[in-house]
């Protein structure tokens, strides 16, 4: 082999060895990275992975029956500034220096929570420190304020030159304030799910579906890229009429505050459909003012004398008594085994069943029901069950209580049940029963929501639901209706009839029929109090062609008080204003008359 060939072989050998050594070094580095430096490089890799961030869906609106907003999510914005953006520091900060005064002035004028000097000092100090995320304003601004700020010369240059950017937050607002607030409900914090009322019941529909964005590095900067658009929540259209709600709330608040009561509840329902047009709940706070704190409309209580109508309906329909049957009462208590029954209007007389309901005699009802069902109390409860009162809760409001009417273990308890003790119903359940009386025996479920909508298009509709086509026979129905007429229009016996200066439930504009109720309050550790009561009136109007049924219940009013005078007059005021608002009155010859429709 010549010297030249040998040199060629050596050159190839050296090159091969170099390549082999290089490959070995690379392989060794790979092994080293995969073993010794594995964790460190995984952390680096994680930082390079695009960060996914949810895009919050806008919560749907809750509307009244005319499309007016009862609850809505309104956009609000935090104002931030990245003082490190290069454009603000070029040419010794010429852009920043030229615009800081006008920026501070606009913030002071538009946001209004600080002076121009305060805003300037805050931004300049952050600029010198090189803050990445300066919270320019302490509080959120609304959409109109954002629009005004975006007219500022610096902000108009965009966030990559001005450093200014906005982050939106949706705040739940109620344009009508406390109007039906407890029924509408609330949400957990800002952007949380519903925690009460319709907000909770229809949370799934209102919430919508969140979208997704990704923070990715594009052109040397991190940008938010939308991966999936958010689907905004659906709208819930209620049966509530904001104008009628205002009428009901004002009437209830006026009377409850006048009597300095613990709480009050009032519901106005459309007779034929069961659509709730207004529902008000107010509680007296520690400061003596009234707020919506609890939904008393769906919380069961002992109903007192309003239950007498239910008891008599059962006995009449079972054929145990007739409307003109008589029963004797005295001004002295009637002792039945271990219990003494007394009347609020004591008298020595003989009453018919019809007049016993009108005057609301406890003694008469106790005698009539015990004589009818003594030894067969189970039949009494079963007859009430057949009316439909105990079938279900009948309400869209979460947490609504069920009726409690247990079979009594003894006839003594039955005698107390006859006039509304040892039984519990919520105001909305009482309303449902009396509405059936007004609706010719047809019991319909109270409804608060008429439809679910998306962009004004109906997605799902809710229709009136018949609970019972007839709660009792026609004769029983007519007898009960006549007795409820006397409660308001029998000036001698009726507990809601005109007495001296008080009109109670009597109106010159609209005829009302219904029933009063007064129940002693049970005070823990002391039993039933003879001085503290829950008063009620529940009725329907106009009596000859019922369109609305209304209940007013007031807890623990201060003396003097009377169910007919206080609750009856409240329903009367509501009835008169409701009929006027709904256009059911016509003026003829200078007088107001009910329009026949």
Poorly predicted runs = 586-597
Number of strands: 25
CATH superfamily of the largest domain: DD-peptidase/beta-lactamase superfamily
SSE-based structural type: alpha+beta
Structural features, described:
36% of the residues lie in helices and 24% in strands. The protein is built from 18 helices and 25 strands. Helix 12 (353-359) packs across helix 17 (474-489) and helix 13 (362-373) packs across helix 15 (411-417). The longest helix has 33 residues, at 3-35. The protein is elongated and about 145 Å long.
Helix and strand topology:
Layout: H1 3-35, H2 38-48, E1 51-55, E2 62-63, E3 69-81, H3 90-110, H4 116-129, E4 134-135, E5 141-142, H5 143-149, H6 159-162, E6 164-173, H7 181-184, H8 197-201, H9 203-207, E7 211-218, E8 221-228, E9 235-238, H10 242-258, E10 263-270, E11 276-284, E12 290-291, H11 308-317, E13 326-329, E14 334-336, E15 339-341, E16 349-352, H12 353-359, H13 362-373, H14 377-386, H15 411-417, H16 427-438, E17 443-444, E18 449-454, E19 457-461, E20 466-468, H17 474-489, E21 513-523, E22 527-541, E23 548-555, H18 563-581, E24 585-588, E25 591-594
Parallel strand pairs: 2-9
Antiparallel strand pairs: 1-7, 2-3, 3-4, 3-5, 3-6, 7-8, 9-18, 10-11, 10-23, 11-12, 13-16, 14-15, 17-20, 18-19, 21-22, 22-23, 24-25
């Amino acid at each position: 082999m010549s010297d030249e060939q040998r040199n060629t072989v050596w050159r190839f050998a050296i090159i091969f060895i170099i390549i082999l050594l290089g490959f070995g070094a690379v392989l060794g580095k790979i092994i080293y990275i995969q073993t010794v430096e594995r964790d460190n490089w995984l952390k680096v890799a994680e930082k390079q992975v695009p960060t996914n961030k949810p895009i919050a869906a806008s919560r749907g609106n809750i509307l009244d029956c005319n499309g007016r907003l009862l609850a809505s999510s309104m956009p609000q914005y935090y104002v931030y500034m990245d003082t490190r953006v290069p454009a603000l520091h070029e040419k010794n900060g010429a852009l920043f220096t030229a615009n800081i005064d006008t920026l501070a002035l606009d913030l002071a004028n538009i946001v209004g929570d600080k002076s121009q000097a305060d805003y300037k000092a805050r931004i300049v100090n952050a600029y010198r420190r090189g803050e990445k995320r300066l919270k320019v304003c302490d509080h959120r601004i609304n959409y109109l304020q954002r629009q005004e700020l975006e007219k500022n010369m610096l902000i108009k240059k965009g966030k990559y030159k001005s450093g200014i950017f906005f982050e939106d937050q949706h705040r739940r607002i109620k344009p009508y304030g406390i109007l039906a607030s407890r029924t509408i409900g609330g949400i957990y914090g800002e952007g949380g799910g519903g925690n009460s009322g319709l907000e909770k019941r229809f949370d799934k529909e209102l919430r919508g579906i969140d979208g997704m964005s990704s923070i990715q590095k594009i052109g040397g900067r991190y940008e938010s890229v939308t991966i999936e658009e958010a689907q905004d929540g659906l709208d819930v259209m209620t049966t509530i009429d904001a104008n009628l709600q205002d009428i009901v709330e004002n009437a209830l608040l006026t009377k409850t505050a006048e009597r300095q009561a613990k709480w009050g509840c009032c519901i106005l329902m459309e007779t034929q459909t069961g659509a709730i047009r207004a529902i008000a709940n107010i509680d007296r706070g520690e400061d003596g003012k009234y707020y919506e704190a609890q939904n008393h409309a769906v919380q069961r209580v002992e109903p007192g004398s309003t239950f007498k109508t239910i008891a008599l309906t059962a006995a009449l329909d079972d054929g145990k008594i007739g409307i003109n049957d008589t029963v004797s009462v005295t001004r002295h208590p009637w002792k039945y085994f271990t219990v003494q029954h007394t009347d609020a209007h004591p008298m020595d007389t003989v009453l018919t069943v019809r007049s016993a309901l009108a005057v609301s005699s406890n003694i008469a009802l106790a005698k009539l029901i015990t004589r009818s069902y003594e030894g067969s109390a189970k039949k009494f409860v079963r007859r009430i069950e057949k009316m439909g009162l105990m079938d279900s809760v009948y309400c869209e409001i979460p947490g609504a209580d069920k009726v409690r009417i247990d079979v009594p273990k003894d006839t003594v308890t039955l005698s107390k049940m006859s006039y509304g003790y040892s039984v519990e119903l919520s105001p909305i359940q009482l309303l449902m029963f009396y509405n059936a009386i007004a609706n010719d025996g047809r019991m319909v479920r109270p409804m608060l929501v008429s439809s679910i909508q998306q962009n004004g298009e109906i997605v799902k509709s809710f229709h009136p639901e018949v609970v019972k086509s007839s709660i009792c026979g026609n004769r029983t129905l007519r007898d009960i209706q006549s007795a409820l007429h006397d409660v308001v229009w029998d000036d001698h016996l009726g507990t809601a009839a005109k007495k001296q200066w008080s009109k109670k439930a009597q109106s010159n504009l609209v005829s009302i029929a219904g029933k009063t109720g007064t129940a002693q309050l049970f005070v823990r550790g002391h039993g039933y109090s003879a001085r503290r009561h829950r008063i009620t009136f529940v009725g329907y109007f106009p009596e000859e062609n019922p369109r609305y049924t209304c209940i007013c219940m007031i807890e623990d009013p201060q003396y003097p008080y009377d169910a007919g005078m206080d609750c009856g007059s409240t329903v009367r005021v509501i009835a008169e204003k409701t009929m006027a608002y709904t256009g059911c009155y016509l003026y003829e010859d200078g007088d107001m008359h009910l329009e026949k429709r």
